[in-house]
Amino acid sequence: MKTPIIAIGLDAADPNFIEQWMSQGNLPNLSLIRQRGIYGRLHNQVNYQGRVAEFSSTEPLWVMMTTGCLPDKTGFWDTITYNPDTYEVRCDPVYGGYDYQEYLPFYALGEKYRVAAFDVPVTRVSPGVNGIQITGWGGHHPFYPSESQPSELLPQIIDKYGSNPVYRKDNGIWWDKKYFNWVTQSVKESVATRAQICREILQQEPWDLFITAFGETHTLGHDLYNLSQPDHPLYPYTNQMETLGDPMLQGFQQVDQAVGEIIAAAPDNVYILLFAVHGMGANITDLLSMMLLPEVLYRFNFPGKVALGWGALNQPVPPIITKKIRNGWSAEVWRQIYEPNPLKKMWHTWTHKKFLRNSKHGLLSPYPLLDEQVELGWMPARWYSSLWPQMKAFALPAYADGHIRINLQGRDRDGIVTAAEYDALCDRLTEVLARLRDGRSGQPLVKQVVRTRKSPLDNDPKLPEPDLIVVWHEIPTDVVDSPDVGRIGPITYNRPGGHREHGFLMAAGPGIEPGSHLNHGRAVDLSATILNLMGAELPAYFDGKPLLEPVLTIS
User: Fold this and answer.
1) pLDDT for 129-161, tens place per residue?
2) 74 dihedral zone (left: phi>0; alpha: psi -120 to 50; beta)
3) Could you give the domains of the chain?
4) For residues 18 and 248, what is the distance between their CA atoms, to the nearest angstrom?
5) pLDDT over 90 (residue 353)
6) Is the dihedral of CA 512, 518, 520, 522 positive or negative?
């Protein structure tokens, strides 16, 4: 007889604070599952043409989980695409995820297994699933359309439970009190309603597999980290522990309660799996990858010139920016455009945005981009794009690791760098990056620079579009010092929480030893683990391996 499986993703729930809160008794339902079964951390790496690096990008990690394949097999590295013929970048918020044409979700198992999949991030309604599929009721920018199988199911859910209050709306900023009030209440409502929907689905029939995810934990980490975790540079200025307590913990407690309600609706003899494909820490990438790296490349390409964030190297570092002047992060960064004339600088800082729409130092102003709803127009890396044809190397917009594209002859439309010069330029950039320091602590910022190609003109469509991947040390900073290009910053912080490569898995059920420990694992192993528990055949193409075989005994 088959043993049903309930698999629940806690999107971007970091094991560091999950473990702490469980030990403190703050997450009783998660603690109970951990006590009754196995727990361990997941660590994620990917292959760049034989070179291995840590990986923390949400969408590819979810696709690794759902397909059982690493990105060098699927070719899905990022939601951001770059066109070398036009130098245009795109990020489709609905269809920018993986298309599942070559590799289906692991739960497309045919008639033998009944499956219910509800809001699994970065998935689509796919053929071969015997059961129900729902995408796009909620989720943290999950890169899927709102649809279902059968097609009438999602409209019925919305008619009964209402639309999700958070879906595609959690784009606020840490200094906005109205947004704080909205997001905390909306997450609470979303979590409670999600639990109701999950219980209804579970009670419809004894599914062989029910899989879902709480995107709300991702929202909590991005938006409330600075109000919860002391390692964030803004924590001393923004936390309100004495009056509000810990709002991120409070949100996770709501999720813990919802998990308990879902499990209460499950059959007695069932496997329960809770997992996160990656974690969340103090944000490093919004500044380093989105803003500071593009400016480093600008100064590298145009020696002696400065565009954004001029600072005086070898002088005392100004304090962290804790009081905003503009209403949004893009506007806060744009007010840092270089202007040596102090009167003009003051005017640029304080004047109305309608006077700030022109390009400056070759950078596109964000205001027209935002008004015209240009994809990624809010991200500083995008503002440099009109200069890319003139640059030897430039930073592509990125949400996680830093991405550098070489402007290569024979590949990029206005390529400058020859294939013979490619390796030397990569070496030189790597040296410049290795010398980047946190302006506040003096610590090096770059952990690893990885080349993605063995040959400059390798046109394999499954290769990532950047030529160099910059993996950062976990040092949140607003100031970068470089002996090569000078100081950049301070820059206003953006989202408080940012991705980490580590996740976790806990599982309980028949044959799983209580209190046992999982010694190793990756997000790509989760699908193989679930299929193994189901007794289903693992596809030969899987990169993932079952994680529970060493400790699982089924009578």
Assistant:
1) 999 999 999 988 888 889 999 999 999 999 999
2) alpha
3) 5-43+106-282+498-519 (3.40.720), 285-494 (no CATH)
4) 11
5) no
6) positive
